């Protein structure tokens, strides 16, 4: 009942020439059996959205400000993302939390602004290795969920990405049992807070070193509805097999 979502996060990578990768992805997945999203750097969003218009591939931002407009040098509002052609936004990524000191309350305010602009909001949560080693994983995730997700969230407007910090960009993937434990926990928390209807319709993505070679195993885990992919989303050649694995998992 939940449609799979293969989301690519290009992070601070991509120049004009990278749009050819998006073009190749669009060509390879004309009628995908899942949703496909690319979140390029802000400089490429408008052009990427133009290129993908009318195709099955959607375009999103990697962050937005909590306010609609104003004196915030360097920031981008949710309305600007929408205006540029984005349909989604990633919020509270661990790199934003680490590099820019973003806290749950800020992520929540941003998510509220994004949802008000009808952007589908991918809220990221995840524990550090120290937190996992101290057996604090579920406490950390629970706190991030209640702090970062606004009350306005619906099954459509909210997507949650579980990304263990120690698995991002490290080549180290969480074990299926570890992923399953956290995803089941997140599902339970969402059902408790928002009721079964909404709680069961929110898509839960896993992120952290997802590749074509490990995607099928990850998508077989309970309550995994897709992936948020960094490094392996930068080329169509690497990302396409992940999309295909998700399509096959839905069959
Ligand atoms: P990675 O990044 O796939 O390069 O590990 C995932 C992410 O940060 O979303």
Commentary on this structure:
By secondary structure, this protein is of the alpha/beta class. It has a single domain (5-250), classed as Aldolase class I (TIM Barrel, Alpha-Beta Barrel). Helix content is 45%, strand content 16%. It has 10 helices and 8 strands. It has helices at 19-28, 42-52, 78-84, 94-99, 104-116, 129-133, 137-148, 176-201, 212-219, 236-250, and strands at residues 5-9, 35-39, 57-61, 88-91, 120-125, 158-162, 203-207, 226-229. An 8-stranded parallel barrel has the order 1-2-3-4-5-6-7-8, surrounded by 8 helices. Helix 1 runs parallel beside helix 2 (42-52) and helix 1 runs parallel beside helix 10 (236-250). The longest helix is centred in the last third of the chain and has 26 residues, at 176-201. The protein is globular and about 45 Å long. The mean pLDDT is 97. 2-phosphoglycolic acid binds at residues 9, 163, 168-169, 207-210, 228-232.
What's the short story on this structure?
The protein is built from 10 helices and 8 strands. It is an alpha/beta fold and 251 residues long. α1 (19-28) runs parallel beside α2 (42-52) and α1 runs parallel beside α10.
List descriptors.
single chain, 251 residues, eight-stranded parallel beta barrel, TIM Barrel, 8 strands
């Amino acid at each position: 009942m939940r449609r799979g979502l293969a989301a690519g996060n290009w992070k601070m990578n991509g120049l004009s020439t990278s749009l050819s990768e998006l073009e190749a992805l669009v060509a390879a997945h004309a009628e995908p059996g899942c949703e496909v999203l690319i979140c390029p750097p802000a400089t490429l969003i408008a052009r990427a959205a133009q290129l993908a218009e009318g195709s099955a591939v959607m375009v999103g931002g990697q962050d937005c400000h909590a306010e609609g407009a104003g004196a915030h040098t360097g920031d981008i509002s949710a309305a600007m993302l929408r205006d540029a052609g984005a349909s989604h936004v990633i919020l509270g990524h661990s790199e934003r939390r680490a590099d820019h000191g973003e806290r749950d309350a800020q992520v929540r305010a941003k998510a509220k602004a994004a949802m008000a602009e009808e952007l589908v909001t991918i809220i990221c949560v995840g524990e550090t290795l120290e937190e996992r080693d101290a057996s604090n994983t579920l406490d950390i995730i629970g706190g991030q969920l209640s702090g970062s997700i606004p009350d306005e969230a619906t099954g459509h407007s909210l997507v949650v990405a579980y990304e263990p910090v120690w698995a991002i960009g490290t080549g180290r993937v969480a074990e299926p049992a570890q992923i399953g434990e956290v995803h089941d926990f997140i599902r339970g928390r969402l059902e408790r807070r928002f009721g079964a209807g909404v709680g069961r319709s929110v898509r839960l993505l896993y992120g952290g070193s997802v590749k074509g070679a490990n995607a099928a195993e990850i998508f077989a885990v309970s309550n995994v509805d897709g992936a948020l992919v960094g490094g392996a989303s930068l080329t169509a050649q690497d990302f396409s097999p992940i999309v295909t694995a998700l399509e096959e998992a839905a069959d």
